[in-house]
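Box 3.1 A note on notation
Throughout this textbook, protein chains are presented in two layers. The first layer is the amino acid sequence; the second is a C-alpha cell string describing backbone geometry. Keep the layers aligned when reading.
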Amino acid sequence: MPRQRSFAASRGGVTLIAIGLIVLVVAVAALSIEALRQGRGSSDPDATVGPAPTFSYAPRSPAPPSSPTSTPSAAPAPGASERFLSVGSEATWRGTAGVCGGIAPLIERSSDGGSTWQSVTPTSKGIAQLQSLTSFGGRNATAVADMGSDCARTTLRTYTDGQFWEPYPDIFAVDTYTLPGERAVVVDGKKIAAPCATPWGLRSGSGVTAVICDGTAYRLDGQNWTTLTPDARAVAVASGHVYVARADAACTGIRISDYATAATDIDCITTADTAGPLALDATSAQSGTSLTLWAGSKLIDIPG
C-alpha cells in the first residue's frame, strides 16, 4: 500500500518554504534599496545636499531722492530797461532803451566822469526807442533809434554835446543794431542770423562783435557765433577783445572776464549792485584798455 503522509509533516514543510520566501524577498528588497542609493546622482531631487543658502527678505529702504543739480537761471532780456554806456575822452554817455509805444527812452551826458548828468534825450525828434549809443571824437555821440509813432529806425548824431541831434541815413546804412522780431542782427549794415529770438546787448567795434542771447554771451566769428560764457549780464568790445560782466557763484558781485583767445578773469566787483540791468564799456588807449561798469547808480572803473 502506498505510504500515507501525515498532515502535521506536510504543514511543517509548507511553513519552512514560506519563511524561506519571505527571507528571500527581504534580501532582494534590501539589495534593491542599496543599489538605488548607490545610483543616485546630484540631480536626484531626493539626494542629500548641503544646507540651503539663506536670504534676507527685509524690505529695502528706498534710495534718498537725488538733489537736482543747481544751475543758475539765465537773466531775462532787460527789454525797456536795457542800458547803454560809452565813455569818451571828454564826455561820458549813457542811456536806457525804452520801448516803442511805451516807456520813453533816456540819453544822458556827463562831462565830469559821471558825478553829474544832464538829460540830452532827443524828444523833439520823436525818439521812441534807443538801440545803441556810441561816443566818438572825444565828446560827440551816435545813436541808433526808432523814431516817431511808426518806430522808423535810423541813426542820429550830435556834434553839440547832445543839444541837437540829426539823422544820418548814410551812416545808418552801415550801422549795427538788433532785429529781435526777425531773430537777426545787423552788423556794419549786413544782416546776420542771431543765436536766439531775442538778442540784446549787441556791441561792435575794432573788428569784433558780441551779443547776449538767452543769458549767454557770444562772439561773432565770420558768419557764425561762438559761445563764450553763460550767466552774462553785459558785454563790451575793444581791440579784438570781448569783455563780459557775468554772474559767478565764486563772486559775491559781478565777475569781469576777458575773452580774447582764452578766457581770463579780470576782477570780481563786490561793490556792484546786481539787482538791475548792467552796462559795460571798454576804452582802448596807448596805456591799455580801461573798463567801466554801470551798476545801480554808480560807474565803476576797472583796470583792463
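Residues 1-72 have pLDDT under 50 and may be disordered. Residues 74-174 form one domain.
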